[in-house]
Amino acid sequence: MRVLILHSRYRSGPLSGENRVVTDEAELLRRAGHEVDLLAPSAEGESRATLALRTLTSSGIGREVRRRVQKDGVSIVHLHNAFPALGPEVIRAAAEAGAAVVVTLHNFRLLCIAGTFFRDGRVCEACFRRTPWPGVVHGCYRRSRLQSSVVATSLVGSRLRGTLTLVHRFLAVSDFLGRRHAAAGLPADRIVVKPNFVPAFPLREGPGSYFLVLGRLSAEKGVGMLVEAWSPSLAELRIVGDGPERPVLERLATGSAVRFVGSLSTSEVPTALAGARALLVPSVCYEGQPRAILEAYAAGVPVVASRIGGLGELVVDGVTGFTVSPADPNAWRDAVRRLLDDEVSLRLGAGARACWQERFTPERALDLLERAYREALAERDRSAA
């Protein structure tokens, strides 16, 4: 198949899990013999006026998509993130040019300006199943009412024009995320669950010596509660990553039991996981499918995660780790103490690795992706008939 992948790259580059998913998926398809082009502009350096026009109309990018579909014989156009450098109207450009259109649902951007259903330290569904003007009032997109209004106008315009009805398959990275989109009005019969994947990691040797947080340090990740609840009796808490909450977290940390490592390159992540007793994911927002959990599973590292969003289906309680109520310090301390038992850490680590082998390998992902592409092509042909 000839595939054109579209993605508005996040500014965080390779540190963005979504950016890495797009790159890895393109390479996976190429290795399987498919012809793949990647159109992944970044908003960096663009003026606000240019980005606003592109977000609203897909100006320029839409013509390029049409040209590639018609001239190069592209059969599948696969969109990941549309905002802000592409705009959702690239969907119309691809469909009208004759391609089957596939959209991966990584987050809730089509339903929520922030993409997270999170505001002011808690879950917020003020825009669920309605026009997203509350998100404009609160400046939910990049803390800017002006930029939020552009995104909201783009979403509302696309709904009124029926742009999303031109999508032949939506790929939800978790069942929870797919069900929420179906409840919001997307056609359930066109939504399929296609998890992310990661390659094999070196297996952890032994039960590990420290607990690990891995990812962006922002309010919705819930790391503040974890840092406040931590004590030296729970071994070392190693925090890998950076973000706006890091200065606050460093002030909350006391003593040497909490260590801030900063950001690591993608090649350094396996080493960080190799010595971990468990990965901790204390998110207080609706997560889709954090890549860090899949990486932990690939390394045979168990996970303790909040029982919220897609995390409850990703972490199998007592098999690959533990799930606990979000923002409950006592529950987190109890789960961590259970993992101080070497036998428990080793048993759950083996369960994590088995889960990766069954659900999140490149081979499994390729099978699901090719199947979704074939279904999208059949849907396109039925619609044309």
Give me a quick take on this structure.
With 385 residues, the chain is α/β, with parallel strands linked by helices.
Largest sheet: 6 strands, parallel
| Outline | globular
Number of strands: 14
Number of continuous helical runs: 15
- What string gives the helices and strands in order? EHEHHEHEEEHHEHEEHEHEHEHEHEHHH
Portion of residues within helices: 40-55%
Mean pLDDT over the full residue set? 94
Topology:
Layout: E1 2-6, H1 17-31, E2 35-39, H2 48-57, H3 61-72, E3 76-79, H4 90-97, E4 100-105, E5 118-119, E6 122-123, H5 133-137, H6 145-161, E7 169-172, H7 175-183, E8 191-193, E9 210-214, H8 223-229, E10 236-240, H9 246-252, E11 258-262, H10 269-274, E12 276-281, H11 291-298, E13 303-306, H12 311-314, E14 321-324, H13 329-339, H14 342-359, H15 362-384
Parallel strand pairs: 1-2, 1-3, 3-4, 4-7, 7-8, 9-10, 9-12, 10-11, 12-13, 13-14
Antiparallel strand pairs: 5-6
Helix pairs in contact: 2-6, 3-4, 8-13, 11-14
Descriptive terms for the model:
alpha/beta; 385 residues; 6-stranded parallel sheet; single chain
Description of the structure:
By secondary structure, the protein is α/β, with parallel strands linked by helices. Helices cover 42% and strands 16% of the residues. The protein contains 15 helices and 14 strands.
